[in-house]
Amino acid sequence: MHWFDPLEKMELRGWYGNGLTWAPERSPFLPYTIYRTKKKHQGLDLYAPVGTNTYACIEGEVYLKRSTDIYGNQIGIKGKYKEKTYYFFYAHLKDSALFNLGDFVKMGEKIGYTGKTGYENDPDRHAHLHFEVRNTSSFTGGRLNPVQTIPEIGKNLNINPEESDQP
Ligand SMILES: [Zn+2]
């Protein structure tokens, strides 16, 4: 095995906006600005109620652990997928990461819980895991399309979730 999904259930986040519009088409990696007003969307938004387990997708080292206004609590894991080094980035986590900077994590190990940190004014139904695949540890740049880079994600991800599955 060379990959473990960051969440048990991999499906695109559906709800957006204060009026709660169902729009899962906004959740993939979008290299150009289509739906988002200010910028492109450089990761995947995965549906996850607050407190959902999140797992190390790869064996590696915690290269990033921090908190910012936009991404909230974040964890980054540096590791190899099919001989190539990548940086996997998890955002909006609960404030209870189970690992620290420099720690070694095993693939499939629980690293923490999803939260709603960062965009704190968003409604509860916006809770999700923002997940990125990068080719650099730099905080900006190097974002890759997760679905194209890691075929397992493309295979396991439900891109047409049902509204009733995301209460
Ligand atoms: Zn996102």
Strand content: 25-35%
- Average residue-wise pLDDT: 91
Named at the architecture level, the CATH assignment is Distorted Sandwich
Class inferred from helices and paired strands: mainly beta
Residue windows where pLDDT falls under 50 for at least 5 positions: none
Q: Roughly how many Å apart are the termini?
A: 33 Å
Largest sheet: 7 strands, antiparallel
CATH class type? Mainly Beta
| Fourth CATH level, the homologous superfamily | Glucose Permease (Domain IIA)
Percentage of residues assigned to helices: under 10%
Report the order of strands and helices. EEEEEEEEEEEHH
Catalogue the ligands: zinc ion
* CATH topology (level 3) name: Glucose Permease (Domain IIA)
Task: Tell me the radius of gyration.
Answer: 15 Å
Our count of domains comes out at: 1
Helical run tally: 2
Number of strands: 11
Sum up the overall morphology in one term.
globular
Q: Could you give the topology of this structure?
A:
Layout: E1 15-16, E2 21-22, E3 44-47, E4 53-55, E5 60-68, E6 72-81, E7 84-93, E8 104-105, E9 110-113, E10 128-134, E11 143-144, H1 146-149, H2 151-156
Antiparallel strand pairs: 1-2, 3-10, 4-9, 5-6, 5-8, 6-7, 7-10, 10-11
Bound molecules: zinc ion.
Zinc ion (ZN) binds at residues 41, 43, 45, 130.
Walk me through the structure.
- With 167 residues, the chain is mainly β.
- Helices cover 6% and strands 33% of the residues.
- It contains 2 helices and 11 strands.
- The strands form 3 sheets. Strands 3, 5, 6, 7, 8, 10 and 11 form a 7-stranded antiparallel sheet that branches. The protein has a two-stranded antiparallel sheet with strand order 1-2.
- The protein starts with 14 loop residues before the first strand and ends in an 11-residue tail after the last helix.
- The model has no long low-confidence stretch (mean pLDDT 91).
- Zinc ion (ZN) is lined by residues 41, 43, 45, 130.
